[in-house]
Amino acid sequence: MVNIQVVSKYLKTGEMYKESLRDNRTVYYKGELIPDVTTHPATSGGINIMSKIFDAQHDPNLKDKLTYVRQDLGERVTKAWMIPRTKEDLKSRRELTDYVAQETFGVFGRPFDLAPLVPVGMAAYISKFRERRPEYAENVLHYIDYAQKNNLMGPEVLVDPQNDRSKAAAGGARLFEDELGNKVKGSDFTPALLRVVKETEEGIYISGAKAVGSIAAQGNEMILSNLMRPGLLPEESLWLSVPINAPGIHIVSRETFSVDASKSYDHPVKSRGEESDSFLIFDNVFVEKWRIFNFGVPELNELYGVVILGAHWHILSRLATKAEMYVGAAQLIVDALGTGKIPGVRSIVSEVIQYAQTLRAYVLASEELAQLTQDEVMWPDVNMLTAGRLYGITNYPQIIHHLQELCGQGLVMRFSEQDYEHPFIGGKLEELLFGRDLTSKQKNLLMNFIWDITTDSHAGRVALFENVNALPAPLLRERLYHEYDRAGFMNQIRKSIGLPL
User: Fold this and answer.
1) Structure pTM?
2) Where a domain ends, among 249, 272, 299?
3) What's the pLDDT at 269?
């Protein structure tokens, strides 16, 4: 184990993070209970990646990028839970996002620092919570303080189970029975929305299910909510936090795309590990009162669009960082193959550069146009975020294709490390498939890297996740149409050509 000099009692080391996950959580993989997520092949790789980021908090060269000194404590804390009050705070907070994206090659959609931006978004509109649910509103600020002091990580989960949507549209039949054994509203048993089944003086009990719980098996706590929809019942109007090892939580992890770390040459990215997506089942899970941010007020769930802006800013920032990595990958391919003098090749690389620069411009613009909310939290510009995410996911497939196209036959004719170790085959590969200033084995390693980020099953999962995570393009277009204020431009034309204002 690397010797880490702890710089603050509020910052975990990688080993402390791993130890915090050995908490008797209930996680299943392929029908079997995982005894220790820090050692199981399906979950340990992603945990190892995150543990290095926890260690990096204590690196003198990185501590200012990943942490800051909280004046009331006089100690360093993670930037993940920082409440931005100025544009400079936003930019400083993004340094953490950019670093994590670089360390994970941008393939972790729900990494170290995404979920914290949801409670921070609630703090940006805390007065709304105080108006409608004053008994729970202060829990938001208390939880941010608690999570920051404990250097917590975990997912924000809002996706409902995919099932027969016709039943959901007809009124939403619920799966579980209440504490008295009475069937709740609806007679057909379709998978349930998360909801309260019992309330006591100490807290509430919740049952139901959630999907796409990325890094749930690899985190400490999760933020749960139901999106506002027609017919949402008061008992389904929720925003809360819960420890991942809480009794009654059952985590079912999907099949992993990662491979053993010994395959690092053949698969430079997927051998490192990945975030684990999970299906979450809640069976009478107790939630203490101090962990509840909203219960029973559907109108507060309607704030999701503005609360989540910080997470959308995170998504766009990560996409920009990943795009910049693609620029580097594109040029490495060109240099390895010696194709830089071909105009068509230079044109393709330029398109990748344009993609990255455009995404970065959206990020910077969202911060430059940021405004204080009524509760004095500096929040990024919604229109720049929506337009940027729309541009990002619309053009993402083309950028992936460009990287594949630059490689030519290199992606089709990839070879294993064992091939290069063979005394005859290895020698012939080196003799016949060398690159420009690269040995054949080195050039092949680059092709293996491009394969992992563009073509492999791991890359396919990432591409699917990006589309779901950013919201599909039609929904983003609809949001942009409704949120972008065009009145000033319309009136300018009216005035100029003589139409009534």
Assistant:
1) 0.92
2) 299
3) 95
